């Protein structure tokens, strides 16, 4: 039994999902003639109460498209210091859009309206980059799966409106937040100019993200996606996996959250663990006591067929997901307790 807690992206499509993909009706999506892609885009747009959606091969490309939509070269994005768009997209914001970041020191990857207001450059002071976009992440990745309160996001939105800034949500794991906080996706749809969501994380699809926005914005996004090389042909086979995931794999995210919390309870009792960050969803981040190195623990667990990852700076990460089942969980809890 190989147990992989490195990421929720490692899941493989089930037989049922593959069967659903196999039966998809497809067309050339570059001509917008793939009915399954259109169904997926419309379905997710409706879930969030937004006008339109656009299918992307990756969350990175969806986020990069959003940044391109909302900025001009030389301008600046406000985001948390842990933001995926800053840390993990290969420098794409500067490569694709020629923009810089004003990074905020948030709480577990989450920023406040007050911090945002304090980071906006005076648009009349032309020495500074012009601030044009605020980007938040929900749930946070490097922040350990933390979820925003809607009230804080509403306050950030007010700051954006008052200062003529666009507001983008990197919602790669928004599904986890919706389940954990019992929030209404339409409440998110009302706040953001664009939202990106992933189907390939907790939901178990092999590939796929969707960018949401109003019709005019998504129409502009079509050209940017084409430029980035994301226009794909009979891609309904992949969109079908997303539709299957939406129908079957959302409510079960609560199981991933329970298991992550149970892992945290066990880790908290161990004398070689220094600190376990609060667990809200499926990501668990912890640190070791000073005389124990990350590599030693990772190796020890590897010998017991359990893979976990290091995030650098002494932080270790475990992510629960669809392919991490109850038997595996029982084994990991026992193994950790005995280690
Ligand atoms: C995974 C992830 C993405 C998208 O990553 P891809 O690997 O390109 O699909 C974007 N934002 C966050 C917060 C993520 O965790």
UniProtKB/TrEMBL annotation:
Could you provide one GO biological process annotation from this protein's UniProt record? L-threonine catabolic process
Q: Which residues are annotated with the PTM N6-(pyridoxal phosphate)lysine? A: 201
- Signal peptide range equals none
Tell me the InterPro entries matching this sequence. ArAA_b-elim_lyase/Thr_aldolase (IPR001597), Low_specificity_L-TA-like (IPR023603), PyrdxlP-dep_Trfase (IPR015424), PyrdxlP-dep_Trfase_major (IPR015421), PyrdxlP-dep_Trfase_small (IPR015422)
Obligatory cofactor(s): pyridoxal 5'-phosphate
Q: Which GO terms describe its molecular function?
A: L-allo-threonine aldolase activity
Spell out the GO cellular component terms annotated for this protein, sorted alphabetically and separated by semicolons.
Answer: cytosol
Return the similarity comment. Belongs to the threonine aldolase family.
| UniProt name for this protein | L-threonine aldolase
């Amino acid at each position: 039994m190989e147990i992989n807690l490195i990421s929720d992206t490692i899941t493989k499509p089930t037989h049922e999902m593959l069967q659903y993909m196999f039966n998809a009706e497809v067309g050339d999506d570059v001509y917008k003639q793939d009915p399954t892609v259109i169904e997926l885009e419309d379905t997710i747009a409706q879930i969030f109460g937004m006008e339109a959606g656009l299918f992307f091969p990756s969350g990175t490309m969806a986020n990069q498209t959003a940044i391109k939509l909302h900025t001009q070269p030389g301008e600046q994005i406000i985001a948390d210091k842990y933001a995926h768009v800053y840390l993990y997209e290969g420098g794409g914001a500067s490569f694709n859009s020629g923009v810089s970041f004003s990074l905020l020191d948030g709480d577990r990857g989450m920023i406040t309206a007050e911090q945002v207001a304090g980071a906006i450059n005076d648009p009349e002071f032309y020495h500074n980059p012009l601030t044009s976009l605020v980007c938040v992440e929900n749930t946070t990745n490097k922040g350990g799966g933390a979820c925003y309160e809607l009230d804080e996001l509403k306050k950030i939105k007010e700051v954006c409106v008052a200062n003529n800034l666009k507001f983008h949500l990197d919602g790669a794991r928004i599904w986890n937040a919706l389940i954990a906080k019992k929030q209404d996706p339409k409440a998110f749809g009302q706040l953001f100019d664009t939202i990106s969501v992933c189907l390939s994380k907790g939901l178990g699809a092999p590939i796929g993200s969707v960018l949401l926005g109003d019709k005019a914005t998504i129409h502009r996004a079509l050209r940017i996606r084409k430029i980035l090389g994301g226009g794909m042909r009979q891609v309904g086979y992949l969109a079908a996996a997303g539709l299957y995931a939406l129908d079957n794999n959302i409510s079960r995210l609560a199981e991933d959250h329970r298991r992550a919390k149970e892992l945290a309870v066990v880790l908290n009792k161990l004398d070689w663990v220094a600190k376990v960050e609060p667990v809200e969803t499926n990501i668990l981040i912890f640190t070791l006591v000073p005389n124990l190195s990350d590599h030693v623990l990772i190796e020890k667990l590897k010998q017991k067929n359990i893979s976990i990852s290091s995030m650098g700076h002494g932080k270790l990460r475990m992510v629960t997901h669809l392919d991490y089942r109850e038997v595996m969980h029982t084994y990991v809890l026992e193994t950790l307790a005995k280690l």
